[in-house]
Design goal:
The complex is a heterodimer of chains A (267) and B (343). Chain A has a domain of 176 residues: P-loop containing nucleotide triphosphate hydrolases (Rossmann fold, 3-Layer(aba) Sandwich). Chain A contains 10 helices and 10 strands. In chain A, helix 3 packs parallel to helix 6, helix 4 crosses helix 6 and helix 6 runs parallel beside helix 7. In chain A, 46% of the residues are buried.
Chain lengths: 267, 343
């Protein structure tokens, strides 16, 4: 599996560490409802950051603010800054298309296109870079290898993606995101609809991927957050309550509400 | 909803305490202990199943009956004129000569014109309504498009006679023929009377548009948000999202809408009769008057006095039915082929 981690297409920014996210005084509204209140935090590159908190606490909203997927919702407003490698992603002239290539996303419910496995993974490169055929084959293989799916699908790349199992479809969606060679990968409860074995595979994958990616994962599963993340942020009612090293946050939380949540007293 | 409620009327009180999940089990061979409720369920289930099966069967039986009736009535003409009925363009009731080629060609050509014009417009409208229109525009506009389908066809015909035909005669036809020099091709040649295959095709395109638009809008809106988000999150623009993810997902439904429109175009009678000119003549020019099978039947049925004439009209009806079925079959097959996994 060590070979699987070598991307065939050389990453243009391989020498400098990229994928750092800094959030400053970020607010977000859906119409009149304020979903996020004054969020300020930093997300380290080459690490897994878990966002935890009860349903409706704003963690998914926050995640979807990082690739600006939220702004398509009518009535959505925001203020404050989110900087990716020092550049405010909400500044005028920011190209959303480029941003979303740099910040990949995987959703709770796997959503492959009703196309072949190959065409699913090739979707991003095709619309963004239009590489020639040889390059595309290499990119697809590399992405599938990085998503630990290559060995399972290499003989049926032309088959429908919908014929795969749920866990495989979810890893295919991860491969599809990786094919864009992103700096950041956002995972919105990627394993919450998977069985334990498929969940384990996704978790192992996340652990592998953090070597060259910034990973932000929303999860309801506290054990999962404890297992795979380096840092954890606890959200409650649209506010960031506490953020710190996962080990520290789970063993000696500083905030009472954090402790109440991780010990299962509410949420 | 009906099946679970049926047993309640026939079961004994104690069996009512059975969990609802047990009800479907009752029909299976492995019979649970409570006998009364099982028997009741089985009988009610059977009656219910037989009833809905009967209803469902009505549709194909009806179609078959129509097919047979029309076929039998048209058989004498088909036998008398043979293959020439489809290829000859002589339609002379007085001499007893019947060839339906102009009507068959007219039906197909007007339908093609209608679809070629209506499909892009309808699809564009549907995409706008499903993905771009602000919500306060969406409802009223969708309602107006649906309203187009509710306009009686004779009203379209009147509009065609008093507005479309003069417009074609005075402006559109001369423009196409002379200004654009399309008169050099065989398709836009000849005098501009007004009543023409082109007029029929145009009026049909307006009439089938709401069908295609309504179905397309429904299937586009039924495409899950997750599919749109998947494409957007990969860096697709909104346009790329629609062409690359939304439309492929909805493709078989959109084809279904186009087929619905085609069915309407093939069979539309009144409006077409009023603007097509009703002439039995094969011409490559869309400016020439023509005929369609439906308008032929409508025009001549009341005047068909002898048996051969009547039978010939029935035979035209039979051919129309056959074409409709074949076209629908092909379309179904197309949906089947493209509805699969491949892009």
């Amino acid at each position: 599996m060590s070979a699987a981690l070598q991307p065939a297409a050389p990453a243009p920014t391989a020498t400098t560490v990229t994928g750092r996210i800094d959030v400053e005084h970020f607010d977000f509204w859906y119409g009149k409802t304020q979903a996020l209140h004054d969020i300020t935090l930093s997300i380290a590159p080459r690490a897994v950051t878990a966002l935890i908190g009860p349903s409706g606490c704003g963690k998914s909203t926050f995640l979807r603010s990082i690739n600006r997927l939220n702004e398509l919702i009518p009535g959505a407003r925001r203020s404050g800054e989110i900087r990716l490698d020092g550049e405010n992603i909400y500044q005028k002239g920011m190209d959303v298309v480029t941003l979303r290539q740099r910040v990949g996303m995987v959703f709770q419910r796997w959503n492959p296109f009703p196309k072949s496995i190959y065409d699913n993974v090739a979707y991003g490169p095709r619309i963004n870079a239009q590489p020639n055929r040889v390059d595309l084959d290499a990119i697809v293989e590399s992405a599938l290898r990085r998503a630990a799916l290559w060995d399972e699908v290499k003989d049926r790349l032309r088959d429908s993606a919908l014929a795969l199992s749920g866990g495989q479809q979810q890893r295919l969606c991860i491969a599809r995101a990786l094919a864009n060679d992103p700096e950041v990968l956002l995972l919105d409860e990627p394993a919450s609809a998977l069985d334990p074995i498929a969940t384990q595979k996704v978790e192992e994958l996340v652990y592998e991927l953090k070597r060259d990616l910034t990973i932000v994962i929303v999860t309801h599963n506290l054990q999962q957050a404890a297992r795979i993340s380096d840092r954890t942020a606890f959200f409650y009612l649209g506010k960031l309550i506490e953020m710190g090293d996962t080990q520290r946050l789970f063993t000696s939380p500083r905030e009472e509400r954090t402790e109440a949540y991780i010990t299962g007293r509410f949420g | 909803m009906q099946t679970p409620s049926l047993p309640a009327t026939v079961t004994t009180p104690e069996s009512r305490t059975l969990p609802t999940l047990a009800t479907p089990l009752a029909g299976s061979p492995a019979a649970p202990p409570s006998r009364v409720s099982i028997e009741g369920t089985v009988v009610a289930d059977r009656v219910y199943r037989a009833a809905i099966f009967g209803f469902a069967l009505c549709v194909p039986i009806l179609l078959l009956l129509i097919f047979v009736e029309v076929g039998v009535a048209g058989w004498p003409a088909l036998r008398q004129f043979g293959f020439g009925f489809l290829t000859s363009s002589t339609w002379d009731p007085v001499a007893g000569q019947f060839g339906a080629a102009p009507a068959i060609a007219g039906t197909i050509i007007t339908s093609i014109i209608a679809l070629v014009i209506a499909t892009p417009l309808a699809l564009g409208g549907a995409i706008f309504l499903s993905d771009f229109a602000p919500s306060w525009v969406r409802q009223p506009l969708a309602f107006l498009i649906d309203l187009l389908a509710a306009v009686p066809s004779v009203v379209y015909g009147l509009w065609g006679v008093f507005f479309l035909l003069p417009l074609l005669r005075e402006d559109v036809m001369p423009f196409l023929r002379d200004t654009l020099h399309l008169g050099a091709t065989p398709f836009f040649r000849g005098p501009a009377y007004g009543p023409s295959v082109l007029a029929a095709g145009l009026i049909l395109s307006i009439m089938v548009l709401p069908y295609i638009a309504a179905v397309s809008r429904e299937v586009l809106m039924a495409v899950p948000r997750s599919q749109r988000e998947a494409a957007l999150a990969l860096g697709a623009t909104r346009w790329e999202t629609i062409t690359g993810a939304v439309i492929p997902f909805a493709r078989s439904g959109i084809i279904g809408g186009v087929i619905l429109g085609l069915g309407r175009a093939l069979g539309e009678t009144m409006a077409v009769t009023m603007v097509i000119g009703n002439r039995h003549e094969l011409s490559a020019s869309l400016f020439a008057p023509g005929y369609t099978m439906a308008s032929l039947i409508a025009n001549e049925f009341s005047e068909a006095t002898n048996d051969v004439h009547l039978s010939a009209l029935m035979a035209v009806g039979f051919v129309l039915l056959l074409i409709t079925l074949v076209v629908n079959g092909i379309a179904r097959w197309l949906v089947w082929q493209t509805g699969g996994s491949r892009s």
